[in-house]
Amino acid sequence: MKTILVTGGAGFIGSNFVDLQVQRGMRVIVLDVMSYAGHRENLEGIKGPGSWELIEGDIQNAELVLSLLKKNQVDAVINFAAESHVDRSISGPGAFVQTNVVGVYQMLWSSTQYWNGLSAERQKGFRFVQVSTDEVFGSLGDSGKFSESTPYAPNSPYSASKAAGDHLARAWFHTYKLPTITTNCSNNYGPKQFPEKLIPHMINCALANKPLPVYGNGKNVRDWIHVEDHCAGVELAYLKGEPGQTY
Prior knowledge:
Mean pLDDT: 94
Distance between the termini: 26 Å
Order of helices and strands: EHEEHEHHHEHEEHEH
Low-confidence stretches: none
Radius of gyration: 18 Å
Number of helices: 8
Strand order of the largest sheet: 3-2-1-4-5-6
Largest sheet: 6 strands, parallel
């Protein structure tokens, strides 16, 4: 049974990923600061051949992260932990810099210290997956698509902070040889999503007979993926991806 550390695992996407991994027979250590978006209820009911354990803590606590890696002899780190709401990033960008930039740095540094102490065989199998967003590439028009070669063009404090985390993950691979992989995904929807996000917000407004808010001029184009499909993609990148690459 492999052991993976999933940060932000009590949140929307993270808890769905934990569910998938427990079904796969993994031992999952969940590290979550339990902010407004993280809830133990998101994990309750998850059962399978594997197991999960919740640790309440901050990814910026490098000493805690390193102790969890060593104590549990972790085989992979999947970093879902992030501040992720664009509107919140505009009104309070500091928290996004702390979690999405400083937090990623601390995770990478702790993981590197742990990885350096592993045997050559275990080093080869270890992975650090940075879960990111397609918003680092900027905006699409009515047509087109992003790819791994699309230039970065973040337009909000949120996307800029995520882009910084992606660059750190890349740098840690090239500088320290830590086997990092970065995934850039579009908007998710599905069970356990926090109600401030667009689809659950619209549903809640409709159920309460409240007006449905239109953002900007109503012509914004968005791509959507179901959270379970995203989690399957992250799993594929973790298991089959090439270190140093983005997907």
